[in-house]
């Protein structure tokens, strides 16, 4: 499961975080990356880091700016094996075990800002 959290806009800049949760990893994220125009506030970062799963990386947390497509730290990978849970075994056998669905967080960020600009003022 992927969760995208959008934080309130401050001084014209947005903070976003993507969290990946995987079956069997308890209730802790296995991957967490900040990808907005500003770093997560310390309290938000600490809440995620204290879950006991992945530590936040990305914008403001040891990562390069998320200011272009195809930047390695912002290519959010989801194992395709996780996508085949609940699919009939005959069909699941066609899903390559080592493959990943890759989501470019920069492109997602741009889409959110373009499609829902007013939303960022009410979160």
Based on the model shown, name its key terms.
single chain; 22% helix; two-stranded antiparallel ribbon; 4-stranded mixed beta sheet; 4 helices; alpha+beta; 123 residues
SSE blueprint and pairings:
Layout: E1 2-6, E2 16-21, E3 29-34, H1 42-49, E4 57-58, E5 75-79, H2 80-83, H3 89-92, E6 100-104, H4 105-115
Parallel strand pairs: 3-4
Antiparallel strand pairs: 1-2, 2-3, 5-6
What does this structure look like?
The chain is of the alpha+beta class. It has one domain (2-121). Helices cover 22% and strands 24% of the residues. The protein contains 4 helices and 6 strands. It has a 4-stranded mixed beta sheet, with no helix packed on it. Strand 2 and strand 3 (29-34) form a beta hairpin. It starts with a strand and ends in an 8-residue tail after the last helix. The mean pLDDT is 83.
Contiguous runs where pLDDT drops below 50 for at least 5 residues: none
Radius of gyration (CA) equals: 16 Å
Q: What about the largest sheet?
A: 4 strands, mixed
The amount of helix comes to: 10-25%
Number of helices: 4
Mean of residue pLDDT? 83
Strand order of the main beta sheet, please?
1-2-3-4
Shape: globular
Q: Label the structural class.
A: alpha+beta
Report strand %: 15-25%
The tally of structural domains comes to 1
Order of helices and strands: EEEHEEHHEH
Number of strands: 6
The end-to-end distance, rounded to whole angstroms, is 22 Å
